[in-house]
Amino acid sequence: MDVNCEGCAGCCLDWRPLGAPDDREREGRYRALDDAYHLVALSRDEIRGFVEAGLGDALVPRLFAADGDRTAVVDGHEVAGVGGRPAFLVGIRKLPKPVAPFDGDRVWLEACAFLDPSTLKCRIHDSDRYPDRCRTYPGHNLELDAETECERVERVHGEPGERLVDDAVPADLPAPPLSRGALGSTVFLHHDPDALDGAVGRLVAGEGVAADRAEFVACAAASAPGTAAVNDEHYERVRDRVLAADSWIGAAAEEWRAAAEDPGDRVADAPAPDSVEVDRGAPATTDWDG
To answer: Which residue intervals are annotated with compositional bias (Basic and acidic residues) in the record (predicted)?
Structure first.
């Protein structure tokens, strides 16, 4: 597998305002309740790694609307669940950033918290925190013969073969996030639905607060792979740690949201990305030719 990511970052951006051709995450039996585009599901061990690195405030849960009998009613919302417990994934937050993908104008788009808006490179690409599903993307799409984000970008903003240079499936793909053995590893069940009063409604509205995110992140980190079990002591400890997290992500999120215009709007005025992120501790990236 070989992909050309320079000047693209289509899999790290919500580029629907620039012509992304579908909204597949809100179709089918399980439909994402949030409006984030291309949320990457993290494993339990990756979630723990982010928390231990002081980056628990970079994470966000995803719940799903569902049809059939595998649902739970939480906070007035019918969501996918098992035995009255809501099922969820955990991914990385998206923040509005001034970016210029696809050789276009600089515009405001929701982007992965770790995307450098200047170079369009991932700030954690060469670190232990880089998620396996990012490292092997679009391997699962290729394995299932499903259209990749690279090909979507080619279809709207490029030529065939410009982004997806080679379509060989990687040999070291992680298990699919919704596979049979995903329970407790990438798919989690919240053990105390009563603790989610108000949280689900805020998350669905895009108004989730730190305490809402911490509830789900802590539950995921305290889950036991292959089971629905959650270690209460570990859950309490992780929730406190996520609530106390004060990484560069949190402060940058506030400044970006205060400066941002509507998604897709041209950037008329924006703070310098390095002052918002690098000066607060974000890892720097180099230009593509560097």
So the answer is: 256-268
Question: CA nearest 253: which of 41, 97, 62?
Answer: 97
Residues 148-202 pLDDT 10s: 999 999 999 999 999 999 999 988 888 888 887 899 999 999 999 989 989 999 9
153: nearest Cα among 266, 12, 260: 12
Asked if pLDDT for residue 290 goes beyond 70, the answer is no
- The number of CA neighbours under 13 Å toward the Cβ of 40 is 27
> Can you give the residue range of the structural domain that contains 242?
2-268
Domain membership flag for residue 252: yes
Is 168 within a domain?
Answer: yes
Note whether residue 277 is domain-resident: no
Q: How far apart are alpha carbons 132 and 126 in whole angstroms?
A: 12
Return mean pLDDT, the chain.
93
| Confidence label for 66 from pLDDT (cuts 50, 70 and 90) | confident
Residue 282 lies in a domain: no
Q: Which residues face 74 on adjacent strands?
A: 77
The larger pLDDT score, comparing residue 15 to residue 26, is at 15
**Lowest-confidence segment of 68-72, 165-169, 190-194, 230-234 by average pLDDT:** 68-72
The position carrying tokens 């609530």 is 243
